[in-house]
């Protein structure tokens, strides 16, 4: 039997089980309270218990003074409910709420999801967690001041590891390392969270989410966050690749409609070979989304992939489908500018005969 927790001033609520912390319960249900270490040390999760009873055990006693405890303050990363609660805490729902930090991370696992896609899971120090919004990215810090940015593929409440999807770029400094010499327990440094591409949870509008290749990573995070929040808005998710191997987590995405009553998932291939016997949609992924949604005037659109794909989607969604410009959110996987020392990308974009990869001045050809 859980306890009901009400958060002020937002008036959001969630259920907390007796043996889980208030922070863990909130994150599990998609509500982002502030935190840092999750170990009762940094004090970032400090908030006030307005009514009800909590217990800290021994954790956090050095951070909270006796006067703090007498005034009702608690560390929500340690405190556990012992009754229904009314608490006072700010919520992390915008970029201004989250500090950008530099942290070490250890490679926990490397999974070859496709011949040219590696899923890396990074473990942060036990005393640290990276707070972020679903859809943001981190910079991997390399030598000589270089950096490579990769979208975080897990939702904020799934923060035991940071999941990155890395596509191999021939000649790339970092991606070459990932696919050749990187091994479990290697140490990396990262800085984040970064980026303004994130789920706008306060909007009531239905969502159109379009991913190309490894642009699936932040879309995955956004979908998982929406499911965790119990967001009931309609979501139409389109994932495009050249051939079936490019949809490297297809089975996972196909499970989403069973987890969300108003979610539709549509995979799209632009160059499926005959021997794959593909019976799904063909063509450019953003055009498949347009065919199903000719009027986007009441929607939000989240688009992630190569620069050409993002540019084509923006132009077509706004001019042909009447999407309001302020409701178009995108993450374009551009190239890093390392004085041409390497051809890694800022995000792991697809560069093998991408059907979108034509000169920008010829984008109109995509519609003919």
* Element string (H = helix, E = strand): EEHEEHEEEEEEEEHEEHEHEEHEHE
CATH superfamily (homologous) name of the largest domain: Nucleotide-binding domain of ferredoxin-NADP reductase (FNR) module
Strand order of the largest sheet: 11-10-13-8-9-12
Report the count of strand segments: 19
Structural class: alpha/beta
So what's the overall shape? globular
Low-confidence stretches: 335-353, 358-368
Major beta sheet, specifics? Answer: 6 strands, antiparallel
**Given the structure, what is the number of helices?**
7
- Helical residue percent? 10-25%
How many domain regions? 2
At the fold tier of CATH, the topology name of the largest domain is Rossmann fold
CATH architecture of the largest domain: 3-Layer(aba) Sandwich
**Rg, please?**
22 Å
Distance between the termini: 60 Å
Q: Strand share of the residues?
A: 25-35%
Mean pLDDT: 85
Q: Mind telling me the CATH class of the largest domain?
A: Alpha Beta
Structural overview:
- 18% of the residues lie in helices and 29% in strands.
- The chain has helices at 22-28, 66-70, 173-180, 216-229, 250-259, 285-292, 307-319; strands at 3-8, 12-16, 46-51, 54-55, 73-75, 80-81, 85-88, 101-114, 117-123, 137-141, 147-151, 162-167, 187-194, 207-212, 235-241, 263-269, 281-282, 300-305, 328-332.
- It folds into two domains: 3-92, Ubiquitin-like (UB roll) (Roll), CATH 3.10.20; 101-368, Nucleotide-binding domain of ferredoxin-NADP reductase (FNR) module (Rossmann fold), CATH 3.40.50.
- The protein is α/β, with parallel strands linked by helices and 368 residues long.
- The strands form four sheets. Strands 11-10-13-8-9-12 form a six-stranded antiparallel sheet, covered by helices on one side. A six-stranded parallel sheet has the order 17-16-15-14-18-19, with helices on both faces.
- Residues 335-353 and 358-368 have low confidence and may be disordered.
- The protein is globular.
